[in-house]
Each structure stands twice: as C-alpha cells, then as structure tokens.
Design a protein that fits this description.
- This protein has 153 residues and is mainly β.
- The protein folds into 2 domains: 83 residues, SH3 type barrels (Roll); 70 residues, Immunoglobulin-like.
- The chain contains 1 helix and 13 strands; from the N terminus they run αβββββββββββββ.
- The strands form 4 sheets. A 4-stranded antiparallel beta sheet has the order 10-9-12-13, with no helix packed on it.
Length: 153
C-alpha cells in the first residue's frame, strides 16, 4: 500500500511540475460544479493531509476533500496546455471527451505506470474510453494537453 501511495505521489509530482513550467494557473473543479482558479504568480503549493488536498498560496489556503475533486488542470490556452472547453465526463465506467478533433488521442495508464491503451475519437468528435473491463482503481488519462486522474469505482 505504501509503495502504491509513493507511485501516486510521484506521478502527481511529475505531471504537476511539467505543467507548472508552461502554465499560468491551476484550476480545481469539484463534483459540485464549483471551480477554483489560482494564478501561479501567487505561488500555490499542493499538499495532502489525510483525506484532503490542500492548496496554499500567498493569498489563501483552501482544503478540498479528495472525494469531492472532479479534476484539476495546471495550464492555460496561451501556454499550449489547454483546458478543454468541454471537460471529460465519467459515466458508468466510461470517460467521454466530446467535441475533440480527429488528431486528438488519449493514453490510459494504471496508477503504477503501466500503459493500458491508446484511444482516438470516433467520426462524431467523441472519444469514449471504456474502463468497465478494467479493475476498480485509479487511472491516469494523458491527452496532448491534459492529464486527468480517474477513480474507477
């Protein structure tokens, strides 16, 4: 269990550090629909305390229950790291990206870093990743512009 937690933390740090090099903000979306945007110029730092993700910046400290976090994105459109206009949705074991171009693709990795699959959109600009046949757990979906953590229940 400790090894898995270390791998999760390492993946989180790699994705976050890479995105910070090219980004101007971090956006945290909650399942309730609330969205929090912090400019990187305020020096936000993400830590974990128990069952919470804590974001501390020069101006504010915010605590989010991990179970309430829908997604987080570090980036902006000007940096080349883009927030999708229509963020992915998770329904019945499917992660669905809508309104994507034909060039859009996604790689799915298990939390221990193993590549699960490569996905491309259908002709109707929808990319449907079916996690239904995979074991329950955490997965990282990597697109050209985003990294999304999905908890498959």
């Amino acid at each position: 269990m400790i090894l898995i937690m270390k791998r999760i933390l390492l993946l989180f740090l790699v994705f976050t550090i890479t995105a910070y090099l090219y980004a101007e903000s971090i956006t945290i979306k909650q399942k309730s629909g609330n969205e929090t945007i912090l400019e990187l110029s305020t020096n936000p730092v993400i830590t974990f305390s128990g069952e919470n993700m804590v974001v501390t910046s020069d101006v504010i400290t915010i605590m989010f229950p991990i179970d309430d976090i829908d997604s987080y994105v570090v980036g902006n459109a000007a940096s080349g790291i883009q927030v999708l206009a229509d963020p992915p949705q998770y329904r019945d074991g499917h992660v669905i990206f809508r309104g994507v171009s034909n060039e859009f693709s996604a790689l799915v990795f298990s939390i221990d870093g193993k590549k699960i699959g490569h996905y491309t959109p259908s002709s109707d600009a929808v990319l449907d990743i079916d996690l239904g046949n995979l074991p329950k757990g955490a997965y990282i979906i990597s697109t050209p512009n985003n990294k999304v953590k999905v908890i498959h229940k």
